[in-house]
Amino acid sequence: MTATSSSSPARRRGFQAERFDFSSFFFSGLTGLATVLILAILVAILLNIVLNGWDGLSWRFISTIPRKDFFDPDTTGILPMIIGTTIRVFVMTLFVIPVGVITAIYLTEYASHTSPLTRIIRGAVNNLAGVPSIVFGLFGAGFFINFVGRNLDAVLQSAKPTWGQPALVWASLTLAVMTLPVVIVATEESLRAIPMGLREASLALGATKLETILKIVLPQALPGIMTGGILAVSRAAGEVAPILFTGVAYYMASLPTRLTDPFMDLGYHVYVLSTQSPNIEKTRPILYATVLVLLVLTFALNFVAILIRARVRKRLRALH
Amino acid sequence: MGIHRGHRARPLEWLAEKLIFGVSLSAILVIFLIFLFVAREALPIFLGRMNSAPVQPVVPVEDMDKLSPAELRRYLELTEKQYAEMDRETLRSLMEIKLEALRELPEEFRTDKDASVNTTQWRYLLLPYQWTGYDKPVHIWQPVGNIRKYNVIPLIVGSLKTTMVGLLFSVPLAVLAAIYVSQLARPRVRELTKPAIELLSGIPSVVVGVFALLVMATVLQGMFGYETRLNAFVAGIALGFAVIPIVFSIAEDALTSVPQTYTQGALALGASKWQAAWQIVLPAALPGVFAAVVLGFGRAIGETMIVLMVCSASVMSWSLFDSARSITTTIAAEMAEAVAGGHHYRMLFMLGAVLFAVTFVSNMAGDLIIHRLKGRLEGKRG
């Protein structure tokens, strides 16, 4: 700090308001411009999708199960994709929320700040957040399908492969692994926002530590846990790469009924429509409509999560 | 957070606490499993145990007894269980089938020098090689056809090209925006812009891909007038959209964690807000900004769907305005057609393992830098 401040010439200078400093004005403007440009990108994407997608959207489109040729704008629909995406994300939350919340409880309530193990867990969580989604896909194929699934088939002695093939449950588990850091970080943040005094009061009244966590801390942290869950859902709903090899199907005539069925998916359908259409001009309206549905699904959730999180952060700041 | 119990835990509670501790190790376990199972599928490539040559030396049926059982089993590509179940006659006929299969290959293919090359060896993976029909040594990734060519250099170049464009586009924008939001903006503006920029990360990458494919590709071609409409440049800019939010959040976080007293001191000495931000706060938070770039790099090199949708032809070219196929794209596009356990399949897993290693290192580095920075800034505050 001393180096940087002493290097600027010791000019005489009045209050900011009295003298106009051009370079400050220019560079401040530049940063503002960058911010505006980023927001413009966001708005451009959203407007483009909404304006183009609106026309192709109809109740029939949303509620129809398409036949084999889903590139035909007049007969196609995206009901199985909406259902597939919803189920895979729902099953995922069943796995990821308990594990994520318990890990966050350990990190905030039990672990000591300085222990190397805590540091390793945190490092692993941060690292997990940065693993490429396609690597999760490979992991899902290599671990869940080829290892767990095949061995399950061998143990259960199934006549034909049921577990050892791409399935809804494997896709959900892969996504659960991927979104684990999201849940952990959000839950941890909300646990930290709870005043220490609440815990102390509970302990002083004779509650055990576990009782305090279950009856005092967790109910207070519920908004944060919800945020984590919602963020995880919104992240997972839009991800395609991890499910490519673990469960998604190009086309299925019927809806998935068991956990071992493959499924159709909104995001994957967007990919198929945009890259494998025989006539891109003709399929453009349904492509945009599908994108709009996907965006509404993920974005609405994200928006809610950000609102809740802003509230949690405000409370956190008030504590410090 | 340290509230410590003065007495011993009740048995049930003790059990629950051990359970909580066990579950909390899941993140470490998962990282370990990812490494283990991606590397496991790729191991034969690393160890040089795969042989992808379509024409392999054959052993005449009469020489069957000259081979040891282990050699014979490997020659016939049988598992130990299969081998144990077979009698001598079956083995003999298998050897005849192998001879027959070779005779049925077209003459010009059988005599092609490349047909007996094991393309999964390291020198064919990394160094240029003059294949039959080419007039100079080339790097080429071509996993279909008679001779599978697995040179990974075009894919690495493709990944680097798109990633670099993405970072060059997104880092200046994101860092400037982070300076604005954390240092210069009024609190009201900050409260609106920060979540808005974070919303950008909520847009699924397929949606960014569609936008890049249908809108941006045309707009950018109109602006710069290059030939190929879908190229590494468009993919890179679209990648930038995905990288902006991550670089922004981390840089903003680092800038905000610089104690207020720094800024206040500078302002009291007569610096303008910009000068305080640029000359005092930014240098103090520089490691955090650097970490943001490192983590942004990890995000960009691992992004799959955007590059997959925008450009995916594998050509060896450093030009930004040619198509490019990145490592991630290759895995995503080719996994479906690769036979499980075959060399193509293992090759894709090897690419995945390399990608995992690269992002693992960049994530670790980013994490470490941030941790140190925070420690230092907090230490100074106290």
Question: Could you characterize what this model shows?
Answer:
The complex is a heterodimer of chains A (320) and B (382). Chain A is mainly alpha-helical. Chain A folds into two domains: 20-56; 59-319, MetI-like (MetI-like fold, Orthogonal Bundle), CATH 1.10.3720.10. Chain A has helices at residues 2-7, 22-56, 59-63, 79-110, 116-130, 133-156, 168-192, 196-204, 209-238, 266-275, 280-319. The longest helix of chain A has 40 residues, at 280-319. The model of chain A is unreliable at 1-16 (pLDDT under 50). Chain B is mostly helical and 382 residues long. Chain B is 67% helix and 1% strand. Chain B has a two-stranded antiparallel sheet. In chain B, helix 2 (26-46) packs antiparallel against helix 16. Chains A and B meet through helix 2, helix 4, helix 5, helix 6 and helix 7 of A and helix 1, helix 2, helix 8, helix 9 and helix 10 of B.
Structure keywords:
A: 320 residues, mainly alpha, MetI-like fold, 2 domains, B: mainly alpha
E-strand count of chain B: 2
Averaged pLDDT of chain A:
86
CATH-assigned homologous superfamily of the largest domain in chain A: MetI-like
Q: What's the N-to-C terminus distance of chain B?
A: 19 Å
* Domain module count of chain A: 2
Beta-strand residue percentage of chain A: under 5%
What is the CATH class of the domain at 153-381 in chain B? Mainly Alpha
Assigned CATH class of the largest domain in chain A: Mainly Alpha
In the CATH classification, which architecture of the largest domain in chain A applies? Answer: Orthogonal Bundle
